[in-house]
Amino acid sequence: MSYFRAIDPFPLESAEHTKLHEFYARLAGGRLATTRCGGCGATTWPPRGFCPECASDRFEWVDLPAEGTVHAFTVQDAGLPAGFDGPRVFAIVKVAGHRIFSILTGADPGAVRVGQRVALAPLRVADDPRGHPRWLPAFRVT
Amino acid sequence: MRKVALVGAGVSKFGVRKATYRDLVWEAGKACFDATPGVLPKDVEGLVVGSVMPERTAFQSHISSLAAEALGIRPSALSARTEHMCASGTVGIRYAYAFIAAGLADLVMVLGVEKLNQPSGDEAILNMGTGVDREWEAAFGLTAPPCFALAAQRHMAAYGTSEEQLALVGVKNHTHAAKNPNAHFTKGATLEQVLCSRMISTPLRLFMCSPITDGAAAVLLASEDRARALTDTPVWIRGTGQALDGFQLTSLHEDYAHWPAMRRAAQAAYAMAGVGPHEVDLAEVHDCFAIAELIAYEELGFCRKGEAGPFVAAGRSDYGGDVVVNPRGGLIGCGHPLGATGVAQAAEVFVQLRGEAGARQVTDASLGLTHNNSGMGEHVVMIYGREP
Known about the structure:
The complex is a heterodimer.
Chain A lengths: L20 H8 L3 E6 L5 E2 L14 E6 L2 E10 L11 E8 L2 E8 L11 E4 L2 E3 L8 E3 L2 E3 L1
Parallel strand pairs in A: 6-10
Antiparallel strand pairs in A: 1-2, 1-3, 4-5, 4-7, 5-6, 7-10, 8-9
Chain B lengths: L3 E8 L9 H14 L11 E5 L3 H4 L5 H9 L6 E5 L5 H14 L5 E8 L6 H8 L15 H16 L3 H15 L13 H6 L2 E3 L2 E2 L9 E9 H7 L4 E10 L15 H14 L8 E3 L5 H10 L8 H6 L10 E2 L4 H5 L3 H16 L13 E7 L4 E8 L3
Parallel strand pairs in B: 2-3, 2-4, 9-10, 9-11
Antiparallel strand pairs in B: 1-7, 1-8, 4-7, 5-6, 8-12, 11-12
Helix pairs in contact in B: 1-3, 4-14, 7-11
């Protein structure tokens, strides 16, 4: 038997595993969605199944703009987790007033600037153990 | 509430250890019992173990019972594990404190332990991703360095904090660690070494970061009567506070140079102790990254917002200054075995307030503070005094 390791850092995205499946279904189609509370109408990022303001668990899906601006960023060169390559540009992206944590793909790390415009660029990662494709809400410089 | 004091403390060697999880429990437990004459394992009524990820790093849960058995403690009043990422140790001390203050126990050990290093280094770092939100953060490869790098970027932009001022935190804490035989790093560091060390996450360089470290620490807490019976020099818990702003990065204050939860936790602890920041002789603060120590000066009230860079540059956080910050070498110099860190901070305050810190002794230390955090938005502060 070889050295044994097992960890999956990616979320389980299919309908059988998460209430937030609709988010990932829309993401696969290039749309950035989140939840609006069915009780008080608050729209939050990230999407959630319970409203921290009014304690409702009713929600509906709404699309956010697929573009935003860089609010803050850092470039990590070393000390990345197994399976993740550097340099890696981590960023907080402002979209319609929401702060979204993500990475910028295909960016020149030396050329990224606060205030720069970026667009949603869904990133396909490893399929889940049952072969369902999985996506993350990454961004790219426009 | 009853008064509660530390009556013993011990720390294992910190580092990349050729030791198992249980070996580290034995080392810290042995050191703590050796430092507490008159107490044997059978006398201890409770055990709280602070530990973050033994399930990942040692294929082991159920660890408070493992540690009790390893040390010969048979809990009759309290047995529990605390997991609160990097602040697990201090969260454990608060539980033991509350139990004793409420009259539910008289003598409780708090032990923090972590065996983080693995045969492959990037796997050890992957494990650290369990401390951020898997779905919205860790899936992108996020661990702690980029989070604190965002705070450093913002502090530099807003207040003119320089790379050299960040580096001076690394120099100070590596220099302090050189006088601590239990530290991960004991060679010290020059300003040039820190500024020329490898870039980890802009603008944080290697010597501005705490390393991946194995280690354990233990303290014994006692009720007032038991403490006075055991020692002439107990170290009293005077105040404690905990506050949270949020878990995910995007739930925190929009300006990452502001950590309001730390300010609230400190204010609660100061109010309970009836003291102010300028009375603190030494502070063990959570310098997981150099920027965290700078922001701690501000949020703990040692200096005003934005003045932390000049504060460290003028030596005001070193021996001979306003307050000695991280005399044991901090997380940057000692390393950061997550669950052990908060307990090791308490152990340092214990020896300092008893005048037993040797080459690291802060002159006439009578009031000590510890600050432990889990990310930028979750903070715990303790205040200890030579007087009750």
